[in-house]
Amino acid sequence: MNATAEATGTGRGIELGLRQNAAQFTLLVVVNALVGGMLGQERTVLPLLGKQEFGLTAYTAGLSFILAFGIAKAATNYFAGAWMDRFGRKPVLVAGWLIAVPVPFMLIWAPSWTWIIVANVLLGVSQGLTWSTTVVMKIDLVGPARRGLAMGFNEAAGYGAVAVTALATGYLAETYGLRPEPFFLGIAFAALGLGLSTLVVRETREHARLEAAGHVARADGKHDHLHGELSNGQVFVQTSFKEPALSSASQAGLVNNLNDGLAWGLFPILFAAAGLSVGKIGILAALYPAVWGVGQLFTGAMSDRWGRKWLIASGMWLQALALGLIALADSFPVWAVAAVLLGAGTAMVYPTLLASIGDVAHPAWRARSVGVYRLWRDGGFAVGALLAGIVADLLGVHAAVWAVAVLTAISGLVVALRMYETHHRPVMAEQEVASDE
Questions:
Q1: In whole angstroms, what is the distance from residue 212 CA to residue 68 CA?
Q2: Which residues have CB under 8 Å from 160's CB, separation 6+?
Q3: Where are the transmembrane segments (predicted)?
Q4: CATH for 16-209+230-436?
Q5: What totals of helices (H) and strands (E) does the chain contain, helices first?
């Protein structure tokens, strides 16, 4: 048994570290890829389905499925953190997959747009439970030294699967039509995800308790007042508004998903209006999350070596630049370059924001802080759907893209001015890196 585990009495055979928990960590990477695939089945097809099969002409109405998804996922993220602390990680993960099972069938058989909205409420709840849980479980397993790398793997798997599925569904839609074939992938993902989560995934809550027992304070005294147990209300206030790093990460997460909601809901329509085929739209819809996904394999580890703050600020500014290029362009090659830049900027931000939450939040209430952060981050889908839809209806799609680009640049400035560097390598973390290597 690990000496620290023995001293704390947290359980026989429980150790922190990527190498020590490689099998479960890898399994959770696979599970999160399946979670991403459930989201990816909609990225290319659903905006076109609303326009072509259900006759939606107003942008706000067409984005209503993203609004429903964003509100459901954001709210579920908040409760997921508290439920993970109360009931354990695995029950929450399994519940999320059970809720996902009917979604692809509803998308296939939907006789009206209302069915699509209800399906996206279920998808949002499912994603809030499953994705939040895989994030927290990986943080539990690896300990403090490799959080950035862990989040890089987690988000790379999820958004890599979004990209591959978006590309595959674009091909299927062009070959066979918008329904039902593209959504057969979702049926397979749900079955595999539920089976693996029920039969093979193991509980990780004791790993968090082990880390809490050996938690080392920062030498500079930052966030000493956050040690120990906090109430749910205190966690919400600290993560949302009061603690500079946590609140800076929360607003950046919201704006990041605001522009992702724009990409999901309006980009396919923008590209179709320019005369691109469904296949080419599928390539563009896949390119952005593909670069985002693969890039996180590197950016998460980079943040462990170089720090979080400036990677986040620079990533937000790169996203703003990419959005401006999309608004200016009118051809496939330029849009492809912009999609790569947008994916690269998002890759710099996404795992690093999660790692920064893990840096600051005490293990005793980390799951709840992650839940609050993800409440704000995925609330960006809802804010983005409303903002982009209203601006697009009033001023056009290009104006909506410009508006989101400006907000993204401002968000990066907030991080630069308010956030402090959160990454801290105490003695315990240095020893863990050495043992992993």
A1: 37
A2: 33, 36, 289, 290, 293, 294
A3: 21-39, 59-80, 92-110, 116-137, 149-171, 183-201, 310-329, 335-354, 401-420
A4: 1.20.1250.20
A5: 20, 0
